Amino acid sequence: MSAIFQPGWARDASANCRTSVSNCSGLLLALVVALLVCVAPITATASPTMILTLPTFPILPDMATGAMPFGGGCVVNTMHLNPPLGNLGDPDCDCDNASDAYEIANGLAGDCNSDGLPDNCEADCNGNGVADPCDLLNGTHKDCNGNGIPDDCETNSVTDCNNNDLLDSCELLLGATDCDENEILDECEPDCNGDGINDTCNITNGESQDCDTNGVPDSCQLDTDGDKIINACDSDDDDDGFSDTDEGICGTDPLDNTSIPTDFDNDGLCDNGVDPDDDNDGALDGDDSDDNNAKVCSDTDGDTCDDCSNGTFDVANDGIDTDSDGTCNAGDTDDDGDTWSDVDETTCGSDPLDNASTPTDFDNDGLC
After folding, report:
1. Among the four residues 41, 153, 267, 268, which has the most C-beta atoms within 10 Å?
2. SS3 of 169, please?
3. Average pLDDT for 137-163
4. CA 359 to CA 34: how far, in whole Å?
5. Domain boundaries of the chain, sorted by first residue
Protein backbone atom coordinates (compact mmCIF):
# COMPACT_ATOMS: atom_id res chain seq x y z
CA MET A 1 0.00 0.00 0.00
CA SER A 2 1.26 3.47 -0.85
CA ALA A 3 0.01 6.92 0.01
CA ILE A 4 -0.49 9.68 -2.53
CA PHE A 5 -0.24 13.24 -1.25
CA GLN A 6 -1.57 16.24 -3.06
CA PRO A 7 1.15 18.29 -4.78
CA GLY A 8 2.72 20.97 -2.61
CA TRP A 9 1.37 19.49 0.57
CA ALA A 10 4.75 18.55 2.04
CA ARG A 11 6.24 21.92 1.18
CA ASP A 12 3.31 23.83 2.70
CA ALA A 13 3.23 21.63 5.75
CA SER A 14 6.92 22.01 6.34
CA ALA A 15 6.74 25.79 5.98
CA ASN A 16 3.76 25.97 8.28
CA CYS A 17 5.51 23.95 10.96
CA ARG A 18 8.58 26.10 10.76
CA THR A 19 6.48 29.24 11.07
CA SER A 20 4.21 28.35 13.97
CA VAL A 21 4.42 25.67 16.65
CA SER A 22 0.65 25.81 17.11
CA ASN A 23 0.11 25.27 13.40
CA CYS A 24 2.53 22.29 13.46
CA SER A 25 0.70 20.55 16.29
CA GLY A 26 -2.57 21.10 14.49
CA LEU A 27 -1.11 19.57 11.36
CA LEU A 28 0.05 16.41 13.16
CA LEU A 29 -3.36 15.93 14.72
CA ALA A 30 -5.00 16.24 11.33
CA LEU A 31 -2.62 13.65 9.87
CA VAL A 32 -3.46 11.13 12.59
CA VAL A 33 -7.19 11.57 12.07
CA ALA A 34 -6.83 11.20 8.33
CA LEU A 35 -4.82 7.98 8.67
CA LEU A 36 -7.39 6.41 11.01
CA VAL A 37 -10.20 7.19 8.62
CA CYS A 38 -8.46 6.04 5.51
CA VAL A 39 -6.87 2.72 6.71
CA ALA A 40 -8.81 -0.27 5.30
CA PRO A 41 -8.43 -4.04 5.87
CA ILE A 42 -5.61 -5.47 3.81
CA THR A 43 -5.83 -9.02 2.43
CA ALA A 44 -2.88 -11.20 1.62
CA THR A 45 -3.59 -11.07 -2.09
CA ALA A 46 -4.68 -7.51 -2.28
CA SER A 47 -2.38 -4.60 -2.53
CA PRO A 48 -4.66 -1.58 -2.65
CA THR A 49 -3.37 1.92 -3.05
CA MET A 50 -4.31 4.18 -0.20
CA ILE A 51 -5.20 7.70 -1.33
CA LEU A 52 -4.70 10.20 1.41
CA THR A 53 -6.68 13.38 0.86
CA LEU A 54 -6.20 16.12 3.40
CA PRO A 55 -8.93 18.66 3.85
CA THR A 56 -8.20 22.38 3.74
CA PHE A 57 -7.30 23.42 7.25
CA PRO A 58 -9.56 25.87 9.06
CA ILE A 59 -8.67 29.46 8.28
CA LEU A 60 -7.09 31.21 11.24
CA PRO A 61 -7.33 34.98 11.62
CA ASP A 62 -4.41 36.76 9.99
CA MET A 63 -1.80 38.29 12.24
CA ALA A 64 -2.09 42.08 12.38
CA THR A 65 0.98 44.11 11.59
CA GLY A 66 1.81 47.77 11.79
CA ALA A 67 4.09 47.62 8.78
CA MET A 68 1.39 48.15 6.16
CA PRO A 69 0.57 51.64 4.90
CA PHE A 70 -2.54 53.63 5.84
CA GLY A 71 -3.37 52.34 9.27
CA GLY A 72 -1.90 48.85 9.38
CA GLY A 73 -2.88 45.56 7.78
CA CYS A 74 -2.10 41.88 8.24
CA VAL A 75 0.13 39.08 7.03
CA VAL A 76 -1.11 35.64 6.02
CA ASN A 77 -1.04 33.41 9.11
CA THR A 78 -2.82 30.33 7.73
CA MET A 79 -1.43 27.51 5.61
CA HIS A 80 -3.75 27.24 2.63
CA LEU A 81 -3.79 23.94 0.75
CA ASN A 82 -6.96 24.02 -1.37
CA PRO A 83 -6.37 26.43 -3.10
CA PRO A 84 -3.21 28.37 -2.09
CA LEU A 85 -4.45 31.86 -1.07
CA GLY A 86 -0.97 32.94 -0.09
CA ASN A 87 2.13 31.86 1.68
CA LEU A 88 2.73 32.38 5.34
CA GLY A 89 3.91 35.92 6.00
CA ASP A 90 2.56 37.38 2.74
CA PRO A 91 1.07 40.89 3.10
CA ASP A 92 -2.71 40.98 3.45
CA CYS A 93 -3.62 44.67 3.71
CA ASP A 94 -7.35 44.16 4.16
CA CYS A 95 -6.99 41.21 6.58
CA ASP A 96 -9.32 38.92 4.61
CA ASN A 97 -7.03 35.83 4.80
CA ALA A 98 -6.05 36.17 1.14
CA SER A 99 -2.68 37.70 0.32
CA ASP A 100 -2.54 40.95 -1.61
CA ALA A 101 -0.64 39.24 -4.42
CA TYR A 102 -3.29 36.51 -4.71
CA GLU A 103 -6.15 39.01 -4.85
CA ILE A 104 -4.41 41.11 -7.50
CA ALA A 105 -3.36 38.11 -9.60
CA ASN A 106 -6.86 36.64 -9.58
CA GLY A 107 -8.70 39.87 -10.28
CA LEU A 108 -10.16 40.11 -6.81
CA ALA A 109 -8.54 43.50 -6.28
CA GLY A 110 -7.24 46.23 -8.57
CA ASP A 111 -3.73 47.61 -8.55
CA CYS A 112 -3.80 50.57 -10.92
CA ASN A 113 -0.24 51.69 -10.24
CA SER A 114 1.24 48.15 -10.09
CA ASP A 115 2.84 48.74 -6.72
CA GLY A 116 1.59 45.45 -5.27
CA LEU A 117 -0.85 47.15 -2.93
CA PRO A 118 -4.54 46.64 -3.73
CA ASP A 119 -6.30 49.86 -4.66
CA ASN A 120 -8.77 49.43 -1.81
CA CYS A 121 -5.84 49.75 0.61
CA GLU A 122 -4.44 52.91 -1.00
CA ALA A 123 -5.25 56.40 0.27
CA ASP A 124 -8.39 58.12 -1.02
CA CYS A 125 -7.93 61.65 0.28
CA ASN A 126 -10.97 63.14 -1.44
CA GLY A 127 -13.30 60.28 -0.54
CA ASN A 128 -14.48 59.72 -4.11
CA GLY A 129 -14.09 55.95 -3.89
CA VAL A 130 -11.08 55.96 -6.21
CA ALA A 131 -7.57 55.47 -4.85
CA ASP A 132 -5.39 58.54 -5.14
CA PRO A 133 -2.85 56.85 -7.46
CA CYS A 134 -5.73 55.88 -9.76
CA ASP A 135 -7.14 59.41 -9.74
CA LEU A 136 -3.73 60.66 -10.85
CA LEU A 137 -3.15 57.93 -13.45
CA ASN A 138 -6.63 58.41 -14.89
CA GLY A 139 -5.96 62.11 -15.31
CA THR A 140 -9.09 63.05 -13.38
CA HIS A 141 -7.01 64.86 -10.76
CA LYS A 142 -3.77 66.83 -10.94
CA ASP A 143 -0.63 66.56 -8.89
CA CYS A 144 1.41 69.55 -10.00
CA ASN A 145 4.18 69.13 -7.44
CA GLY A 146 4.52 65.37 -7.94
CA ASN A 147 4.12 64.43 -4.29
CA GLY A 148 1.50 61.76 -4.99
CA ILE A 149 -1.31 63.72 -3.37
CA PRO A 150 -4.06 65.14 -5.61
CA ASP A 151 -3.96 68.93 -5.65
CA ASP A 152 -7.57 69.20 -4.48
CA CYS A 153 -6.53 67.52 -1.21
CA GLU A 154 -3.83 70.09 -0.58
CA THR A 155 -5.67 73.27 -1.55
CA ASN A 156 -6.58 75.53 1.37
CA SER A 157 -6.41 79.18 2.36
CA VAL A 158 -2.72 78.88 3.17
CA THR A 159 -1.44 77.03 0.10
CA ASP A 160 -3.85 78.52 -2.47
CA CYS A 161 -3.79 82.21 -1.63
CA ASN A 162 -5.80 83.33 -4.66
CA ASN A 163 -8.37 80.52 -4.37
CA ASN A 164 -7.99 79.44 -7.99
CA ASP A 165 -7.79 75.74 -7.06
CA LEU A 166 -4.13 75.64 -8.05
CA LEU A 167 -1.56 75.29 -5.32
CA ASP A 168 0.74 78.26 -4.86
CA SER A 169 3.74 75.94 -5.12
CA CYS A 170 2.44 74.78 -8.50
CA GLU A 171 1.83 78.31 -9.72
CA LEU A 172 5.41 79.17 -8.80
CA LEU A 173 6.62 76.16 -10.78
CA LEU A 174 4.56 77.40 -13.70
CA GLY A 175 6.21 80.84 -13.57
CA ALA A 176 4.17 82.91 -11.12
CA THR A 177 6.26 85.71 -9.60
CA ASP A 178 7.60 85.72 -6.05
CA CYS A 179 10.05 88.62 -6.02
CA ASP A 180 10.95 88.32 -2.35
CA GLU A 181 11.22 84.51 -2.52
CA ASN A 182 9.01 83.94 0.50
CA GLU A 183 6.94 81.28 -1.33
CA ILE A 184 3.90 83.58 -1.38
CA LEU A 185 2.64 84.71 -4.76
CA ASP A 186 3.27 88.41 -5.38
CA GLU A 187 -0.38 88.84 -6.33
CA CYS A 188 -1.36 87.75 -2.82
CA GLU A 189 0.89 90.25 -1.05
CA PRO A 190 0.09 93.94 -0.40
CA ASP A 191 0.60 96.30 -3.33
CA CYS A 192 -0.61 99.63 -1.96
CA ASN A 193 0.18 101.68 -5.04
CA GLY A 194 -1.19 99.14 -7.50
CA ASP A 195 1.90 99.01 -9.68
CA GLY A 196 1.88 95.23 -9.87
CA ILE A 197 4.91 94.89 -7.60
CA ASN A 198 4.37 94.00 -3.99
CA ASP A 199 5.32 96.57 -1.38
CA THR A 200 8.23 94.58 0.03
CA CYS A 201 9.91 94.36 -3.36
CA ASN A 202 9.25 98.01 -4.16
CA ILE A 203 11.12 98.93 -0.99
CA THR A 204 13.89 96.36 -1.42
CA ASN A 205 14.48 97.41 -5.02
CA GLY A 206 14.74 101.06 -3.99
CA GLU A 207 11.68 102.04 -6.01
CA SER A 208 9.88 103.22 -2.87
CA GLN A 209 11.06 104.81 0.36
CA ASP A 210 10.06 103.47 3.75
CA CYS A 211 11.36 105.97 6.30
CA ASP A 212 9.57 104.38 9.24
CA THR A 213 10.55 100.82 8.18
CA ASN A 214 7.02 99.51 8.62
CA GLY A 215 7.01 97.67 5.29
CA VAL A 216 4.61 100.15 3.67
CA PRO A 217 5.98 102.51 0.99
CA ASP A 218 5.98 106.17 2.04
CA SER A 219 3.94 107.03 -1.05
CA CYS A 220 1.04 105.12 0.48
CA GLN A 221 1.15 106.85 3.86
CA LEU A 222 -0.23 110.18 5.11
CA ASP A 223 1.72 113.38 4.43
CA THR A 224 -0.47 116.22 5.76
CA ASP A 225 1.68 119.15 4.64
CA GLY A 226 2.76 117.60 1.33
CA ASP A 227 6.45 118.09 2.02
CA LYS A 228 7.32 114.56 0.84
CA ILE A 229 7.95 113.52 4.43
CA ILE A 230 5.20 111.29 5.78
CA ASN A 231 3.70 112.25 9.12
CA ALA A 232 5.32 109.26 10.81
CA CYS A 233 8.73 110.73 10.01
CA ASP A 234 7.86 114.47 10.02
CA SER A 235 8.46 116.45 13.22
CA ASP A 236 6.04 119.17 12.06
CA ASP A 237 3.15 117.50 10.25
CA ASP A 238 1.26 120.70 9.37
CA ASP A 239 4.37 122.76 8.66
CA ASP A 240 3.26 125.68 10.87
CA GLY A 241 6.68 126.12 12.45
CA PHE A 242 5.78 124.38 15.69
CA SER A 243 6.78 120.80 16.32
CA ASP A 244 4.07 118.20 16.77
CA THR A 245 5.37 117.57 20.27
CA ASP A 246 5.14 121.24 21.26
CA GLU A 247 1.68 121.57 19.77
CA GLY A 248 0.60 118.59 21.81
CA ILE A 249 1.83 120.32 24.96
CA CYS A 250 0.40 123.71 24.02
CA GLY A 251 -3.00 122.30 23.13
CA THR A 252 -3.11 123.12 19.41
CA ASP A 253 -3.74 120.74 16.51
CA PRO A 254 -0.50 119.40 14.97
CA LEU A 255 -2.39 118.50 11.77
CA ASP A 256 -3.91 121.97 11.21
CA ASN A 257 -1.62 124.82 10.19
CA THR A 258 -4.26 127.38 11.19
CA SER A 259 -4.13 126.12 14.75
CA ILE A 260 -1.03 127.89 16.05
CA PRO A 261 0.17 128.26 19.66
CA THR A 262 0.78 131.66 21.27
CA ASP A 263 4.41 132.76 21.00
CA PHE A 264 4.86 136.26 22.40
CA ASP A 265 8.55 136.60 21.61
CA ASN A 266 8.34 134.74 18.28
CA ASP A 267 11.13 132.41 19.22
CA GLY A 268 9.33 129.31 17.91
CA LEU A 269 8.50 128.10 21.40
CA CYS A 270 4.89 128.35 22.47
CA ASP A 271 4.14 130.24 25.64
CA ASN A 272 1.98 127.60 27.23
CA GLY A 273 4.49 125.45 29.04
CA VAL A 274 7.19 125.10 26.39
CA ASP A 275 9.03 128.46 26.42
CA PRO A 276 10.61 129.06 29.85
CA ASP A 277 10.83 132.83 29.14
CA ASP A 278 7.79 133.90 27.13
CA ASP A 279 8.87 137.53 26.65
CA ASN A 280 12.53 136.67 26.24
CA ASP A 281 13.66 139.35 28.73
CA GLY A 282 16.07 137.08 30.54
CA ALA A 283 13.84 136.57 33.53
CA LEU A 284 12.28 133.13 33.71
CA ASP A 285 8.51 133.13 33.73
CA GLY A 286 8.46 131.92 37.32
CA ASP A 287 10.43 135.00 38.41
CA ASP A 288 8.88 137.48 35.96
CA SER A 289 6.14 139.82 37.15
CA ASP A 290 4.88 140.09 33.56
CA ASP A 291 5.63 137.14 31.31
CA ASN A 292 4.50 139.01 28.21
CA ASN A 293 6.37 142.32 28.67
CA ALA A 294 10.08 142.27 27.98
CA LYS A 295 10.66 145.54 29.93
CA VAL A 296 8.89 144.46 33.06
CA CYS A 297 10.06 141.71 35.33
CA SER A 298 11.20 142.89 38.79
CA ASP A 299 13.01 145.55 40.84
CA THR A 300 15.43 143.63 42.97
CA ASP A 301 17.56 146.72 43.85
CA GLY A 302 14.57 148.87 44.84
CA ASP A 303 15.54 151.85 42.69
CA THR A 304 12.05 152.08 41.21
CA CYS A 305 13.50 151.11 37.85
CA ASP A 306 12.48 147.71 36.58
CA ASP A 307 15.40 145.36 36.26
CA CYS A 308 14.27 144.71 32.67
CA SER A 309 13.89 148.37 31.69
CA ASN A 310 16.33 147.89 28.83
CA GLY A 311 14.41 144.85 27.58
CA THR A 312 16.87 142.54 29.24
CA PHE A 313 17.27 141.58 32.86
CA ASP A 314 20.16 143.85 33.91
CA VAL A 315 19.99 145.30 37.42
CA ALA A 316 23.16 147.39 37.11
CA ASN A 317 21.95 149.14 33.98
CA ASP A 318 18.26 149.39 34.57
CA GLY A 319 18.43 153.22 34.19
CA ILE A 320 16.50 156.05 35.85
CA ASP A 321 12.82 156.89 36.16
CA THR A 322 12.62 160.60 35.27
CA ASP A 323 8.91 160.99 35.93
CA SER A 324 8.88 158.57 38.87
CA ASP A 325 5.99 156.67 37.41
CA GLY A 326 7.54 153.29 38.29
CA THR A 327 8.64 152.65 34.74
CA CYS A 328 12.23 153.53 34.08
CA ASN A 329 13.11 155.59 31.08
CA ALA A 330 14.46 152.62 29.17
CA GLY A 331 11.02 151.10 29.20
CA ASP A 332 8.92 154.25 29.41
CA THR A 333 7.47 155.70 26.20
CA ASP A 334 6.99 159.09 27.93
CA ASP A 335 9.99 159.61 30.16
CA ASP A 336 8.98 163.02 31.51
CA GLY A 337 5.30 162.30 31.90
CA ASP A 338 4.12 165.31 29.85
CA THR A 339 1.76 163.16 27.75
CA TRP A 340 3.96 163.64 24.71
CA SER A 341 5.76 160.51 23.67
CA ASP A 342 9.52 160.59 23.63
CA VAL A 343 9.40 159.87 19.90
CA ASP A 344 7.09 162.82 19.16
CA GLU A 345 9.07 165.18 21.37
CA THR A 346 12.27 164.22 19.63
CA THR A 347 10.57 164.78 16.26
CA CYS A 348 9.07 168.13 17.31
CA GLY A 349 12.29 169.41 18.95
CA SER A 350 11.19 169.45 22.60
CA ASP A 351 13.02 167.68 25.47
CA PRO A 352 11.59 164.23 26.24
CA LEU A 353 13.18 164.38 29.70
CA ASP A 354 11.66 167.76 30.68
CA ASN A 355 7.96 167.95 31.27
CA ALA A 356 8.11 171.74 30.94
CA SER A 357 9.40 171.38 27.41
CA THR A 358 6.50 170.42 25.22
CA PRO A 359 5.86 170.68 21.49
CA THR A 360 3.60 173.41 20.04
CA ASP A 361 0.09 172.12 19.37
CA PHE A 362 -2.24 174.99 18.38
CA ASP A 363 -5.36 172.83 17.97
CA ASN A 364 -4.57 170.52 20.88
CA ASP A 365 -5.02 167.42 18.76
CA GLY A 366 -1.91 165.70 20.19
CA LEU A 367 0.11 166.33 17.08
CA CYS A 368 2.89 168.95 17.23
Report:
1. 153
2. helix
3. 77
4. 161
5. 1-122, 225-275
